[in-house]
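Before we proceed, please read the two lines closing this message. Tell me what the token row says about the fold.
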Amino acid sequence: MNTKFQKLKDQLQSLEKEDKFVGSSAYKHRNTLLELGSSTPTWLKMTLFGAFLLSFILYMGSQIFNVNAVDINTVESVQSWVDQPDEELLAGMSSWMEEMGYGNLSQQDLVELRQQGVMATFVSRIRDLGHENLTLDEAVRLQQNDVSATFATMMQELGYSLTVNDLIELRQHNVTAYYTSNLHDLGYTDITTEELIRLKDTGVEIAEVKQLMSDNSTKPTVSELIRHHISNQ
């Protein structure tokens, strides 16, 4: 048998013996503790438990105060570092934005746009909907008002030709493509953006429209829907 292999085998056997010895000792120690525990008076058990509980409370309190003492500026610096996008990602965004006609944006410009939620993909999708002259300020305003590219796309598919300001106004009044689509499915295919806003501002829900249509066996006008909702508040 190879000397090196034999040495390794001996070491393994030695470790196994040590492990068995430790396990045996621990088992004996455990049994001793159990025997002592069974004969310990109740008052002593309660005292020991109280001491343990007090120590735990003091320990947790010290941990909380230590956390509160952390320099806030340090936390913000770390957060800022984590939020920094990858250099390669910024380079790709810069090339795409330049290709779309937005000039050679600085790294700081790109970082600020991304912090506002404006990505090259978003700008490209909005431009594809017919907004070729979209400015970066308009792109930021769209994101600030929760106008997603999906919302803009779906509203266009529903037959609406909307400006950037129209899209922003609709979202400011909580009009969604889902709400609009449901109204179209109920026969309101010619409903205007102004009527959508009026319905949303009044609080008219789709279930309410369905119920009223079912009760009257007719399609109420937008004004009738609004009056009905107000009268039943």
In short: Residues 3-68 form one domain. The longest helix spans residues 3-39.
